[in-house]
Amino acid sequence: MSDILFDTSVYISALRRGDDEILVLRRTVRSGDRATRPLWLSAVVLEELYAGAEDTKARRVFMRMEREFEKLDRLLVPNQADWSLTGQVLARIGAKYGFEEIGRSRMTNDALIAISAARNGFTVLTKNASDLARIAEFRPFHWEEI
Predict the structure, then answer these.
(1) Which domains does the chain have, with CATH numbers?
(2) Mapped to the 3 state alphabet, what secondary structure does the chain carry?
(3) Which of 9, 98, 100, 143 might form a disulfide with 124, Cβ 3.0–4.6 angstroms?
(4) What tens digit of pLDDT does each residue of 40-64 get?
(5) Distance between the two ends of the chain, CA-based, in angstroms?
(6) What is the C-alpha to C-alpha distance for residues 31 and 88, in angstroms, rounded to an integer?
(7) pTM
(8) Considering only CA atoms, which of 129, 121, 137, 128 is closest in space to residue 40?
């Protein structure tokens, strides 16, 4: 059973619904198989949340999340190999589907999340399966749409 990592779409969806509960989940989460597993935060997800923060309140929440995940030693940061493999995977996706169609720059963050999660054997939970499915064609990893 692998540890869990939410992609940005999970946090954004919860925020749009006014569901602040997801923001206080720090230690464990139940996934589709109902098992309780440790929850991690990707530095890439954190960057996307900060970039989209429209007010001071949201930024404070994200800062608190960052500190708490750091204290738990559950902040996943892509390393050099993740970046390199991301470029290789995006090139292969572009060759198969056409660079214009895939929006390579749009997929970079999703690929970094997926590849760094795969390196650690984590399962990525998402609300946006299309890009992750395409990435998984070229770099298999565990993911679930929720």
Answers:
(1) 4-145 (3.40.50.1010)
(2) CCCEEECHHHHHHHHHHCCCHHHHCCCEEECCCCCEEEEEEEHHHHHHHHHHCCCHHHHHHHHHHHHHHHHCCCEECCCHHHHHHHHHHHHHHHHHHCHHHHCHHHHHHHHHHHHHHHHHCCEEEECCHHHHHHHHHHCCCEEEEC
(3) 143
(4) 999 999 999 999 988 898 888 889 8
(5) 17
(6) 30
(7) 0.87
(8) 121
